[in-house]
Amino acid sequence: MTRGISWRNFDFLLLGAIVLASAFGTAMIRSAIAGNEVLLPLINRQIYFALLGLVVIFFVAAIDYRYWLALYRPIYFGIMIFLVALSSLGQVAFGAQRWFTVGVLFLQPTEFAKIVVIIILARYFDRAQNDPRGLKWMFRGFLWAFGLMFWILIQPNLSNVVVITVIFGAMLWINGIQLKHVLAFAGIGALALGVLVAVSVAGIRLPFLQEYQQQRIVTFILPDPNATHGAEYNVQQALIAIGSGGWFGKGYGHGTQTQLRFLKVRHTDFIFSAVSEEFGLIGAIIVILVLAFIVWRCIRAAQKARDVAGSMLAYGVAVLIFFQGAVNIGVNLNIVPVSGLPLPFVSYGGSGLTALMLGIGLVESVVMRHKQLDF
Amino acid sequence: MSSGSVPRSARFETWRLAAVYVVVILVLASLLFRLVNLQLIEGPSWLTRAVDNYTNEVSIAAARGIIYDRNGYILARNLASYNVVITPASLPDDDSDIQRIYREVSELTGVPVGGPLTDAALEEAKLYAACVEGPSITQLVGLQDSNAPYSPVKIKCNVSEEIARVVEERSVDWPGVTVEIDPIRDYPTGSLTANMVGFLGPIPALLEEELRARGFIPNRDKIGYAGVEASLQGILAGSNGRRVVQIDVAGQELRNLEPPVAAVPGYNVYLTIDTRLQAAAEASLLQEVNFWNTYFGTIRISSGVVIAMNPETGEILAMVSWPTYENNRMARLIPAYYYQQLSEDPTHPLLNNAISAEFPPGSVFKLSTATGAFNEGVVTLDKIIAAPGQLLLCEKFAANEECTDRNTRPFVDWIFETNPDGFGQIDFLHCIAYSSNVCFYKLGGGFEDEIEQGLGIERLGEYARAIGYDQRSGIELLGEADGLIPSPKWKRLNTGENWSTGDTYIASVGQGYVLATPLQVLMSGATIANNGKLMQPTIVREVTDGEGKVREVWFNPEDYTLWVPQDNVDGPGDTNRIWVNPADPAITLDSLPAGSYQISPFVPNMKWDITETPMIEGYSCDAGYCSLIEDQLKTVKPETVAAVRTGTRLAVTDARGTLHKVFLDFPIAVAGKTGTAEYCDDVARKANQCQFGAWPTHSWTLAYAPYEDPEIIVMAFAYHGGEGASVAAPIVARVIQAYFELKSIDIAQGGAPSP
Question: Can you spell out the DSSP letters for B115-132?
Fold first, then answer.
């Protein structure tokens, strides 16, 4: 299983970027705690998870990814049991059940479920690589994804349903979906989105959507400039934080929006605003560039992969990191409705960080076993 | 391991991968575009909002100045009022501890603990203003916790000192519960001095913007509504301090962003009032009022005024306007029912009748006629005038009108009822002493061959104005009325009728259209008493700053602005004095308006000396009609003033003098003049009292002492009091007596005589 691996092919640049992003993230969380004693243990917890994540990367990288693909059944149904259990047993918070309490830790199976979806879809598209690119090809892939997506939808956690949908869609695209189908789906998608927005603004409740989620859409379309709390207020404070950062920012630990706690959920959803406030445009661009670099290294691994499965694994992780990152930054910049997706590797969140590290481990596993052109 | 798949040189179709890259680059570019837009282009405005977020301006309330009387007796001060407050952020973490604190605080203050904190309960709590009873502790704290958890919320206002002490003692058991001290104005002398001291009220919406710009905080700071609290607001208020602090999202103050500006306490004001004399004056007035009202078995005298002044300096020693109000009832807030009751009362207790009300002055006005007639040579000391009980005079509206039976009517003297023969043959001085109406009809309007040319209304007006009538005195109190001396022009404009000879006759005895404030009557007497020098009446003696240093203050009666000079050190050794107007600091010494006078430190301010300041317009008169001679201002001859003074003394010394009985055994030489003024106002008309020939009358008296070198002049007025000599005169006598008794007490105690 670990025979013939060559650490020579291990992507140390990718690892370096991950370490850089995580270390920077931990430092930013430390600043964003802003003297809140309740949040103080989060810094160490994030460090433990980052160190754990590094071990996970090496461990997963050392094992041939095809081994995981072979174990797809226990992995797939195992995570499904967790998701099902979550909908009845999980901790209720913010209207959505997203955590398992294991000791002092909150475990979010959803974060791992996204990696599992990537593994399952990688296996599927590998198996179906010679199938005609018809509706049946698409529908069978969708069924695999939907098996996990459904439980996430009833949590309800719309953001991650969208993430999985985007991963599935990106895989369809790269595996050669026909353009007429793309156009059809784009049309249906646009129509559905239009209806969703119109219905939400009209104040009609929809199933699978929490009231606050519809409200977020409404406040994004029709912002209330006088809001003193809630999503709109948070976004306003984020914009003030970002905008007041200027070229070079106010300095680490000196952002008034962050340190005086005007910026809300600043260690998770709005950590990008904290970065932009304290390190300015330069800092924000560096964060974006590091994320872009990670995405690029993943796509590079996907191109080098020896088989479709490996390629899809790396590609799926790339899409996951890119989409989450772009949506998170878009929320911070108020060009996307508030969604609750973390900034990869930077935001606080043990499960999210570990799951992403696991994904990077898979990418490393793929790139280490790429087809040898350089005999 | 072998996958069995065919290795390809590129895993993906190039164009599909290129599309992915295009999407990635487009998304990143749009993020970057937005980022640059926010941080660089809109950056400064977002930075302003960030600064606004954490910047908070805290105003430090300045202590209001204290008001004393001339002897340092406190008339207005600041007392502490205690509020029980809770700071939500300082409450303990444990819910059961919080509930215990709520229970115990509730037991102490009587404010209910309240049920669970629901949204509806929070909404309900929002409906109440601070200090209004209703919401429970849970509601109040819950609401404050969501607004500003680091700021205290008032649970119970104005608790007793005892409750405040209990809260202080239990501060260890009750974290978060504290006592807040709120200054409230207290008036130890209450209604006795309310008409001069006044009261405070909230900043009205009309002034909010202006006062806010000057650092006042609406709903916290109060301003004067009446009395010197209002007229000296500019120096009493002081200036609020200011701290600009950095706050966090919960409102907790972190540090000063700018060096704090300390509050400057308001200046203390010493009034010229002697509270003891004020009390004596009020007691004298009420004794007389109660006597007569009891005697008649009805509320006959419904209001009255007593003013005592030093005629040589203009210092008002006492100023009673009864009925008045209790300004302590306005200390915390102005009770709506009380204010309504006061403002609807027909006797106008909220008005200071001494300066704001106008009445016909009656015979006290004869001082004007006497001064004019003597000065213009209408009468001499040797002239003997026939003063029968009544005079048949004809009412002519034009010079060429014939005197017929139809327009001839009797003009009655006050003695007619008791003695139809009148005073007989009397000279000018006895005209004053006996207050003979017939004599003054003749002096004012002329009579046949006896007095060929009377003074006439034009010249009467000149002399009345010279001794203080028909204009505001400029005293440091708001709402002063200016009285009225009619003229033919005024009558044509206001009634549409020509001036008649009868108008002149009755104006000569202070009736008809003539109106005066009690203070003007006092000033007219003071001018005569002080040998023609009219002193500026003042109720402010001294102004001191927070350190007790006497400050120079000037007052402009035109617009009630106050001027405080400040030393402006300009280069080595050069000290310029600049004037600081609280409303406009840019105004300098040169632009101090005319009419302003110094109110602190005290200097007697002479308005004018009628024997030296040429201010009487010359008129040439013939057959009862006078025309103005341009540019011929003259003075009053000193012997004129001396003659009128002698007449006022004769009123006391002559056996038939109007003030003879009252001052019969008085040890000090007193001189004065009484007045019984017929009136017919709305109140009298409603009560059906306006019967021709038996009009209701106001009672007036003014008297000064000692005659040779007067140091006190007292004026008393009783609305519907009847005869001046029998109602107002005893009041004046008692006040003068009290004055000299107080003076001897002061001397006996080794102090300098207070005035």
Answer: S---HHHHHHHTTSPTT-
